[in-house]
């Protein structure tokens, strides 16, 4: 079961007291695993039910019970033991003896409630298949940002691993990262496999260097002399006003 509940201490206790009584009567001696998506994403307001739904769909698809973040000391006012409610602290495989079924219960701050029961299709002998995606034929640039350098490094590595081990619609991911994410203090980028070709990578690196030069110029920062190596020679020539940005990109390409 996953909950997206109210924010007050009193409301939270009442919510779990009601859940404890309900599940204790229904499931008897069997333990019920509970969790919340709020520690992951905060209060979803109008999308609170949807975020829980996404979490549970991923749990079913990956046959994994996700842990609950930031859960250290159980509230003594919530009768976990009496109702046989368990909060997972580590990811674990779905018990072989248990049906792959979850209930999602959301109480929005506006008073809107949502409740849904999800069953994994394979539990009903329905074959679960994936639709193959067309190979990505154009170069893609993935951009990342984070509040801390270590977080940025970890996020980049996680995305790289996810792309390599899953059938990802790369174009959709590029759009989400570039247009639907906040730009935080620490930023980086990486290229898709198609960008390993020199005709793409060299102009890209040159454009990046030209962008840095333009940014410094906007801050009235100008060098007294410049020196470059390899593709850096193109950026150095641009910095010295020996070539235009367009000429620099053409030189890098050819």
User: Span from first to last CA?
Assistant: 59 Å
Rg of Cα set:
26 Å
Unreliable runs:
none
Cα shape: elongated
Helix % is: 40-55%
Question: How are the strands ordered across the major sheet?
Answer: 3-1-7-8
Number of helices: 9
Largest sheet: 4 strands, mixed
Q: Beta-sheet strand percentage?
A: 15-25%
Can you write the helix and strand succession as a string? EHEEHHEHEEEEEHHEHHH
> Oligomeric status of the shown chains?
single chain
Number of strands: 10
Overall SS class = alpha/beta
What is the mean pLDDT?
A: 79
List keywords for this structure.
alpha/beta, single chain, 42% helix, 254 residues, 9 helices, two-stranded parallel ribbon, elongated
Q: What does this entry show, briefly?
A:
This protein is an alpha/beta fold and 254 residues long.
Written description of the protein model:
Keywords: Phosphopantetheine, Phosphoprotein. It comes from Lepidopterella palustris CBS 459.81. This is Thiolase-like protein. Residues 1-120 form the Ketosynthase family 3 (KS3) domain. Pfam families: Acyl_transf_1, KAsynt_C_assoc, Ketoacyl-synt_C. The protein is α/β, with parallel strands linked by helices and 254 residues long. Strands 3-1-7-8 form a four-stranded mixed beta sheet. A two-stranded parallel sheet has the order 2-5. It has a two-stranded antiparallel ribbon with strand order 4-6. The protein has helices at residues 9-27, 38-41, 48-61, 80-83, 149-165, 170-179, 198-218, 232-239, 245-253, and strands at residues 2-4, 32-33, 35-36, 64-65, 85-86, 92-93, 101-107, 113-119, 141-146, 186-191. Helix 7 packs antiparallel against helix 9 and helix 8 (232-239) packs antiparallel against helix 9. It contains nine helices and ten strands. The radius of gyration is 26 Å and the shape is elongated.
């Amino acid at each position: 079961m996953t909950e997206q509940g109210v924010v007050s201490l009193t409301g939270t206790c009442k919510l779990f007291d009601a859940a404890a009584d309900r599940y204790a009567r229904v499931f008897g001696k069997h333990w019920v695993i509970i969790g919340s998506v709020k520690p992951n994403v905060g209060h979803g307001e109008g999308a609170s039910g949807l975020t829980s739904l996404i979490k549970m769909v991923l749990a079913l698809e990956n046959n994994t019970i996700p842990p609950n973040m930031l859960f250290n000391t159980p509230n003594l006012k919530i009768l976990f033991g009496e109702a046989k409610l368990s909060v997972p602290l580590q990811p674990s495989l779905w018990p072989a003896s248990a049906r792959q079924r979850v209930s999602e219960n959301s109480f929005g701050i506006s008073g809107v409630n949502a409740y849904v029961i999800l069953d994994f299709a394979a539990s009903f002998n329905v074959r679960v298949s994936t639709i193959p995606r067309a190979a990505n034929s154009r170069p893609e640039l993935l951009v990342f940002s984070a509040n801390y350098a270590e977080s940025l490094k970890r996020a980049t590595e996680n995305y790289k691993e996810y792309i390599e081990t899953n059938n990802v619609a790369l174009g959709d991911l590029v759009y989400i990262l570039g247009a639907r994410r906040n730009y935080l203090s620490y930023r980086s980028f990486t290229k898709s496999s198609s960008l390993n070709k020199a005709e793409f990578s060299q102009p890209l690196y040159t454009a990046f260097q030209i962008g840095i030069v333009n940014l410094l110029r906007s801050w009235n920062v100008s060098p007294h002399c410049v020196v470059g190596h390899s593709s850096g020679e193109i950026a150095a020539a641009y910095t010295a006003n020996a070539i235009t940005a367009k000429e620099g990109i053409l030189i890098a390409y050819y």
